[in-house]
């Protein structure tokens, strides 16, 4: 029983450290949580010739660290790898990552 509790305690400490490392930026502050719905303000600009809004660009910048994860998800990849998404990212000054 004691071995099991020790293993569980170490596992929790490792998971906590990994989560903290993944959420801390280079300068220490936590990044905004990944939330793909924040990019919904960009859909009109991605799917039409409309320019991206300030809200779209701001959300795209905030979600920038999450883009590789979104590109790995087949539900989001079709939007983020489209020519429209490249156009929006370029207009917002946000480089699309190579993952």
TrEMBL record:
This is Bifunctional inhibitor/plant lipid transfer protein/seed storage helical domain-containing protein. Residues 1-19 form the signal peptide. Coiled coil: none annotated. Keywords: Lipid-binding, Signal, Transport. InterPro entries: Bifun_inhib/LTP/seed_sf (IPR036312), Bifunc_inhib/LTP/seed_store (IPR016140), nsLTP2 (IPR033872). PANTHER family: BIFUNCTIONAL INHIBITOR/LIPID-TRANSFER PROTEIN/SEED STORAGE 2S ALBUMIN SUPERFAMILY PROTEIN, BIFUNCTIONAL INHIBITOR_LIPID-TRANSFER PROTEIN_SEED STORAGE 2S ALBUMIN SUPERFAMILY PROTEIN. PROSITE patterns: PROKAR_LIPOPROTEIN (PS51257). Pfam families: LTP_2 (PF14368). One of its GO terms (biological process) is lipid transport. One of its GO terms (molecular function) is lipid binding. It comes from the Eukaryota. The keyword Metal-binding does not apply. Residues 34-99 form the Bifunctional inhibitor/plant lipid transfer protein/seed storage helical domain.
């Amino acid at each position: 029983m004691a071995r099991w509790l020790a293993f569980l305690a170490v596992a929790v400490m490792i998971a906590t450290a990994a989560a903290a490392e993944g959420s801390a930026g280079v300068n220490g502050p936590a990044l905004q949580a990944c939330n793909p719905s924040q990019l919904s303000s960009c859909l009109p600009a991605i799917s039409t010739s409309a320019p991206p809004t300030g809200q779209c660009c701001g959300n795209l910048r905030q979600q920038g660290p999450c883009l590789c994860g979104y590109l790995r998800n087949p539900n989001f990849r079709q939007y983020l790898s489209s020519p429209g998404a490249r156009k929006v990212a370029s207009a917002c000054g946000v480089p699309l990552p190579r993952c």
